[in-house]
């Protein structure tokens, strides 16, 4: 029996195939290849200038690519004009029409598509209800708060049921509390409509909360592509480890492998073992990465562990997430999570021993 899924079921919705962008001799995006699956929420995450917007704009058609192809549903869309792509676009500045009411703004994409008036009325009412703006249908944008205006922008995008939506920092202008509410709202709308969505942000928490997969970008290229938990627990590069969540980094040089095939790294604080990251073989700089919650106070209790001695510098009580801050002789900081109620057995300035499983660490470059 053939149990392999049909090609149609596995084919990517969007195939970015070697797309690159040069401005003169400046590389805004190195040749980049990645697939976005149908119905997926993919986030481009990276610091300012890493090429996120450039990649998104090439998918939208607003910026022509220097090289590579864009394929949608298997067809070549590289040179297709923006207005023929039918994608929903939402940017940081809502760009609502100021002279139109909320209802008219949301109806606009449907009017452009010559839909019958009664269908437009129904679709607008339904979509406004989904973003909880039904009571504001007759207001003008200037009579709304920033969050409400951004909701109108979302409604105006989702109302015409685009198969692909591109969002570039859509919550960038909102305060933290409102951002968090809107993050959940966008996720909900994405699920309800089953849209394929590419989202740009430089905010790692936002990316972790919202995405099916995250594409971590730095210096005009993709550093790592994976689910939030893959990227958090198995960062492939030092950049990915430090950009997402808190990491302990022990810098050093590669010193071969142990009997189990784990990478050994020689650091100022001793030699440690960790799983070998994917991309580190030839790099100049290496580090063992271990997340604070994988480290335990006390001496190693069995084989397969790394052990470290360091000076206790501070104890930070922040509710459920109490932290011990340590410092190594070479000044490297090292943090671990302290279980509630556990005894430290040492004062500030005294030495403590900590340990973590070899499998919890990863040697990357
Ligand atoms: N029209 C242009 N001409 C020249 N350089 C450009 C142009 N547009 C973008 N760049 C450069 O390309 C690089 C990537 O820009 P891009 O806007 O993609 O970054 P980003 O990751 O989206 O950053 P941000 O989070 O700040 O928006 C930047 O160094 C930027 O200065």
Automatic annotation (TrEMBL):
Domain ABC transporter: 14-244
Keyword ATP-binding: yes
Keywords assigned: ATP-binding, Nucleotide-binding, Plasmid, Transport
GO biological process entries: quaternary ammonium group transport
UniProt xrefs under Pfam families: ABC_tran (PF00005), TOBE_2 (PF08402)
Listed GO CC annotations: ATP-binding cassette (ABC) transporter complex
Single GO term (MF): ATP binding
PANTHER family referenced in this protein's UniProt entry, alphabetically: SPERMIDINE/PUTRESCINE IMPORT ATP-BINDING PROTEIN POTA, SPERMIDINE_PUTRESCINE IMPORT ATP-BINDING PROTEIN POTA
Protein name (database record): Putative spermidine/putrescine transport system ATP-binding protein
């Amino acid at each position: 029996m053939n149990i392999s899924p049909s090609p149609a079921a596995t084919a990517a919705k969007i195939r970015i195939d070697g797309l690159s962008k040069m401005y003169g001799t400046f590389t805004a995006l190195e040749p980049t290849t990645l697939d976005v699956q149908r119905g997926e929420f993919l986030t481009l995450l990276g610091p300012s200038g890493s090429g996120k917007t450039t990649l998104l704009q090439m998918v939208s058609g607003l910026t022509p690519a220097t090289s590579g192809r864009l394929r949608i549903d298997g067809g070549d869309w590289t040179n297709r004009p923006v207005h023929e792509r039918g994608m929903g676009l939402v940017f940081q500045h809502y760009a609502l029409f100021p002279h139109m009411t909320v209802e008219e703004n949301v109806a606009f994409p449907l009017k452009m598509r010559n839909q019958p008036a009664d269908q437009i009325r129904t679709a607008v009412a339904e979509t406004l209800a989904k973003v909880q703006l039904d009571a504001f249908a007759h207001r003008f944008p200037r009579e709304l708060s920033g969050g409400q205006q951004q909701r109108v922008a979302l409604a105006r995008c989702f109302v015409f049921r685009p198969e692909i939506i591109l969002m570039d920092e859509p919550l960038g202008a909102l305060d933290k509390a409102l951002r968090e509410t809107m993050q959940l709202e966008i996720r909900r709308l994405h699920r309800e409509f089953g849209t394929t969505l590419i989202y740009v942000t430089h905010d790692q928490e936002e990316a972790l909360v919202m995405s099916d997969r995250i594409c971590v970008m730095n210096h005009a290229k993709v550093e790592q592509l994976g689910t939030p938990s893959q990227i958090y627990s198995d960062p492939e590069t030092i950049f990915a480890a430090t950009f997402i969540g808190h990491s302990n980094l022990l810098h050093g040089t590669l010193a071969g492998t142990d009997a189990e095939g784990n990478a050994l790294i020689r650091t100022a604080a001793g030699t440690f073992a960790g799983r070998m990251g994917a991309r580190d073989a030839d790099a100049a700089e290496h580090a063992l990465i271990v997340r604070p919650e994988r480290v335990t106070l006390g001496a190693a209790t069995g084989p397969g562990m790394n052990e470290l001695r360091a000076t206790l510098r501070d104890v930070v009580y922040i509710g459920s997430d109490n932290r011990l801050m340590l410092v190594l002789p070479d000044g490297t900081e090292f943090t671990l999570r302290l279980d509630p109620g556990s005894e430290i057995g040492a004062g500030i300035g005294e030495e403590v021993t900590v340990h973590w499983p070899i499998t919890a660490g990863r040697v990357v470059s």
